[in-house]
Amino acid sequence: MFELRDVTVQFGQTVIVEQTTRRFRGNRFTAIVGPNGAGKSTLMKLLTGELSPSSGRVLFNGLDIAKQPARSLAGYRAVLAQSNHLSFPFSVHEVTGLGLQGTSVDRKTRSRLIRNALESVELSGYEGRLYQQLSGGEQQRVQLARVLCQLEASSAPDDEKFLFLDEPISNMDVRHQIKTLQIARQYAREGLGVVAVLHDLNLAARFADEVIVMCLGKCVADAAPKQAFTEDMLERVFEVGFEVSADGEDHIRVSLCDIVDTPHTPSVRP
After folding, report:
1. 99 falls in which pLDDT band (50, 70, 90)?
2. CA-based end-to-end distance of the chain
């Protein structure tokens, strides 16, 4: 279990995340949504240990993650960052295999894990291609295959593993956006904790078990999509009008209201 305990992140006089307390458990797919600059990626970096809080504590299984070796944490959590830049000409096979660094898997198992991961993200046959020659969406899928390898090689119990995804579908076409979130949801169903920063509200509503809505560094809603995505809440956070309607028995659909061109008037979110 990952836990934020009264966590604040502040740079100078600017508060990025303010006094946030929240637990993240296995068997749940949690989506973090909100406008640009709301603190979504900062919250993710706190959970993954990439960023230390200005105050408060970030815990994994009751222990401060700042005091846990990165190698130890790697056995429990895999992270797909918002951007991944490689300067050298690695092949798809080599990039995917980076998820297995530091593990004790043998060569045969390594090849099987890489092959299965690339098949999961629909990149079978791409092993020999250079990573830099792929499209942005294909590169993102290779990075997803990398973190899937890391999870599959881990000997930790599934209910103690976590998959962190920071804007994992930003460069993908619609088909592969859906495929990626299906993979994430399946991992959650198998007992893992999945936390993803998403911009598409409908995809968050469709695939996530619970949604955190962030605005100006605060978690202003934290519930199942049906309860979190109210028209009033979304309008106050995103400063545009929304219509929320039922989409079958278990899902909702979020639509923009008619947009009227008007001069921009600065507003202050509540």
Report:
1. very high
2. 31
270 pLDDT higher than 50 = no
Assigned token pair, 96: 């995917």
Torsion angle defined by CA atoms of residues 189, 195, 197 and 198, in that order, rounded to the nearest 10 degrees:
10
Please tell me the distance from the alpha carbon of residue 99 to that of residue 191, in angstroms, as a whole number: 20
Averaged over 171-175, what is the pLDDT? Answer: 95
- Please indicate, yes or no, whether the overall pTM of this predicted structure exceeds 0.85: yes
**Assigned token pair, 125:** 């046959």
Q: Contact at 8 Å (CB) between 187 and 218?
A: no
The dihedral of CA 115, 175, 151, 97: what is its sign? positive
Q: Report CA-CA distances (Å) from 89 to 19, 22, 50, 85, 134.
A: 43, 41, 26, 11, 11
